[in-house]
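hey can u check if this looks right to u? its 316 residues, i copy pasted from the old doc so theres a chance i mangled smth
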Amino acid sequence: MTKEEKYRALMPKVAALLAGEPDPVARMANMAALLHQEMGFWWTGFYRVQSEELVLGPFQGPVACTRIAFGRGVCGTAWKERRTVVVPDVEQFPGHIACSSVSRSEIVVPLWQRHEVTGVLDIDSRETGTFDEVDWHWLEKMAALVYGPQREIWFAAGCFWGAQKYFKLIEGVEFTEVGFCNGWTENPTYEQVYTDRTGHAECVHVRYNPEIVTLEELVRLYFCIIDPLSLNKQGGDEGTRYRTGVYYEEEADRPILEQEFLRVRRALGVEEMPVELLPLASFYPADEYHQDYLDKHPNGYCHLNPALFDLARSRR
């Protein structure tokens, strides 16, 4: 069985194990135990943010560092930079904290709750080069379950700056990031996407709690911020990178999305509209400059009417 197949088989087991348990520490404990047992990791555990430190949480494996400062080591770096960090050789990582000389490679995944990093999932191996994009993909999905059930969807709505702010304001949305989807160039830069030669659309990755906000509600809110009859143009922004679309990973989401698209077409009295509805083929996060842009630059450019942000807030 490949590593991909192991993770794919493990994911429903993790979800079933956590179902019905509201306490996040209990969820961390069982997730750490199951991951450690099924994947054979050397050290598997959690650190929780408390004030300006990461404090050791539930784990499986040898004795570990109890507290880690913000920005220190691999765990502190993942917290500070708000991203998953994969280290093929910990001896080559600047500022590595040697809790154990046995650890040789490491992956650290942030835990998100209401757009804040509240802890990290830390996994170590006794071999170098253990972790790759497969671990990254599946461990992020599992870490997202710590605070309850979560699903993912991607929205292209023209310029992604305003769209990210809009979705962040909706209750039940736990995480957002802007990036580029469904093109053919790997790891494109913003400048490359801007030429309209990479095939990518600017989009917002949304992770949400379906017990608080449903996919139907998110799609209806999405259609409030786009002109569904405009091809490759939203507001003053024009080009294929600004096309509109909804992209999904779970095939079970498609019938729900199709029904919402049908509802909009009927309301508009049209048979077709230039809004894509496709499986997610690829997604590459934009660089840090573009993440949460309007939070960093409150007076920055946004093609959305400010009243739309009030609409999102009203969902709280």
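The chain has a mean pLDDT of 94.
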